[in-house]
Amino acid sequence: PPQVSFTLELEFSCSILLDRAEVTLEATSDSTEVTPQDNVVKISVPILYQPSLFLSSHTNLHRYEVHPFSHSSGPEFTTTVKVQNLGCYPVQNVTLHMALPALGHHRATILSVTRVLAENATCVLKSLDEEVTRVVPVSPEELQDVER
């Protein structure tokens, strides 16, 4: 039997968010058919909207020196992390994981979080004891490699 293939390209509006797209296809003919009821098909597919997220960060300290065998943290600085939805579709259940603090020689803490300020978000700060199995210490040799 003859077959026809075609592609449907649908464009969606930001003002009306749909859960499903429904399309009805009907084939007609001048011939007399025995089973005309199979000439109609209804297709319903779920719509998934692609998010357009933008992650940015800003810090007020761009460089500080950590001595290879130091056991003290560096200077205090502020880092701001922002997650923005640049698209027009709502985004839910976004989770951002940040791995801090960093560990140095003999697992000495060279970076730690002193406070967290959050807007429109819920932040959970886990202690080093809970994350210690996943934190890889930085060796003194790695700290001696300075990019110039």
Keywords:
148 residues; two-stranded antiparallel sheet; 6% helix; 19% strand
User: Any idea what the shape is?
Assistant: elongated
If helices are DSSP runs of H or I spanning 4 or more residues, what is the number of helices?
A: 2
- Main β-sheet, in a few words? 2 strands, antiparallel
Q: Return the structural class.
A: mainly beta
Rg, please?
Answer: 28 Å
Strand order, sheet with most strands? 1-2
Percent of sequence in beta strands? 15-25%
Would you kindly provide a brief summary of this structure?
The protein has 148 residues and is mainly beta. Helix content is 6%, strand content 19%. The radius of gyration is 28 Å and the shape is elongated.
Write structural notes for this entry.
There is one protein chain. The chain contains 2 helices and 4 strands, in the order E-E-E-E-H-H. With 148 residues, it is mainly beta. The strands form 2 sheets. It has a two-stranded antiparallel ribbon. The radius of gyration is 28 Å and the shape is elongated. It starts with 19 loop residues before the first strand and ends with a helix.
What is the fold's blueprint, element by element?
Blueprint: E1 20-26, E2 40-46, E3 53-59, E4 79-85, H1 128-131, H2 140-144
Antiparallel strand pairs: 1-2, 3-4
